[in-house]
Amino acid sequence: MTHSRLRPIGLALAGLALAGTVAGCSNGSDSGGSGGSSSKQFQFWDPYPQFDNSSDWVKLVKSCGDDAGVKIKRTGYDTSDLTSKALLAGQQGASPDVIVIDNPVISTLADAGVLASADDLKLDTTPFAKNIAAAGILDDKAYGVPIGANTLALYYNEDLLKKAGVDPTSIKDWDSLNAALAKIKDEGSKGITFSGIGTEEGSFQFLPWFWGSGANLKDLASADAVSAVKLWDDWLAKGYAPNSVINNTQTTAWQEFETGKFGFVENGTWQMGNAEKLGFKYGIISIPAKDGGAAPVPTGGEFVAAPVQKDTARYAKTTKIIDCLTSPDNLLKTDATLSYIAPLESAQQEQASKDPKLAPWVTAVGDAKGRTSDNLGTNYPIISEQMWDAFQKAMSGSDSPQAAMETAQKAAASKVK
Questions:
Q1: Looking at residue 27, what is its pLDDT?
Q2: What is the pLDDT of residues 264-323, one digit of tens each?
């Protein structure tokens, strides 16, 4: 996708309701047009402000710069800040050389003309798992490569399931899951908790059920799509899930699970460390699709990409830096730090071999897909907002699942490009 000029920043920012799963931009001081960079210094922005210069991550970033023959000036920003700063920097001709950014934002930045394509960089994207790399594709062009992925599955309380006579391996579809939730409720506990909040976080949690029903994001009013909303709505009506899910974030849903009063929680790879601190035995299963098998789950995680530079000769060193960061050995170190599953199959197998508890997550990531896949690109946040509004209305009782999704589809269709 070639851009002769950048899209107005206001239009790009309008599509950022999904951002978040930077300080002031410096003025360009060299002919390359990158913010504060010189021929020997490359700017590097990432969404990991928690890591300082003593961290393994920053040491790796700087060593990859050294290998490419440049010094890296690295800045870590909050995720939501990073997106807006990247757009603004692109408008001002003050972009960093390398950026690490949340995967759904890639299409927004690419559509705004901020990112160089993999073709521009001569960056090889073929080694990466296609379902993970798909989040970086817009109009059949790739922009950057993934550094890792996280996703969703169902954690379960082994003690509660045993007490209720539920074998977790028997849960293969929605019917068997509902039967398990009924048994857990009959024993005096809650069946499941999740995040159904009216934000992208809620949409992220809803997507496995939506996609698992067979629905497509281009048709929110389909019978399959309505069945996914009805599933969540029924859980509240039958007492399988608490009303708190309407406002739950993924963190508060996990906190409910920690009480030991819930059979299941829908949550992510990032809770693996907390799971080891639970006061009860736990297990993990894939989220089931309506008619059987594992549901597609959305990928979280970041991509390493390269903003457009006036001096395209810089791209050769940029590509060396990206190749270094995403080499199998370095990916394993980085993904262990970030609790991610690697985007390379060989690295995934090594992760599962070294830590068998990662095996369910390797499987889940294998079944995952990017939120902006199906060539939705910048239309995804528009659709997502209407979707979360619909399941919120249904669960709160202000609308039926059918009516809520019909309204959502009409609103989405009127706004998408």
A1: 30
A2: 999 999 999 999 999 999 999 999 999 999 999 999 999 999 999 999 999 999 999 999
What pLDDT is attached to residue 38? 60
> Residue 193 is part of a domain; what is its CATH number?
3.40.190.10
In the prediction, which pLDDT does 373 show?
Answer: 87
- Asked if residue 210 and residue 71 are part of one domain, the reply reads no
Reported pTM: 0.86
Question: What's the average model confidence in pLDDT over 87-111?
Answer: 95
Examine residue 189 and state whether it is found in any structural domain, yes or no.
yes
Query: What is the enclosing helix (H) or strand (E) of 283?
Result: strand 282-285
**What type of residue sits at position 321?**
I
CB 266 within 8 A of CB 194: yes
For residue 186, count CB atoms less than 10 angstroms from its CB and return exposed for 0-12, middle for 13-18, buried for 19 or more.
Answer: exposed
The overall average pLDDT reported for the chain is 91
Task: Clarify whether residues 239 and 386 are in a common domain.
Answer: yes
- Whether residue 15 lies inside any domain: the answer is no
The H-or-E segment that residue 411 falls in is helix 401-415
Q: What is the average per-residue pLDDT within 233-237?
A: 98
Q: Are residues 278 and 323 in the same domain?
A: no
Residue reference for tokens 């070639």: 2
What secondary structure letter does DSSP report for 115? B
Interatomic CA distance for residues 190 and 296, integer angstroms: 25
Q: Averaged over 12-41, what is the pLDDT?
A: 45
Q: Is residue 191 domain-shared with residue 308, that is, in the same domain?
A: no
Q: Are residues 79 and 180 in the same domain?
A: no
Query: Are 136 and 159 in the same domain?
Result: no
Indicate whether 174 and 121 sit together in one domain. no
Tally of CB atoms within 10 A around 281: 12
Outline where DSSP puts E strands in 47-90: 71-76
**Both 83 and 221 in a single domain?**
no
Domain extent, residue 80, equals 37-146+300-367
Buried b or exposed e, range 157-173, using 16+ CB within 10 angstroms: beebbeebebebeebbb
**How, if at all, do strands 71-76 and 282-285 pair?**
unpaired
In the chain, pLDDT over 70 holds for what percent of residues? Answer: 91
Any idea which residue has 């907002």 for tokens? 385
* Residue 7 resides in a domain: no
| 205: in domain | yes
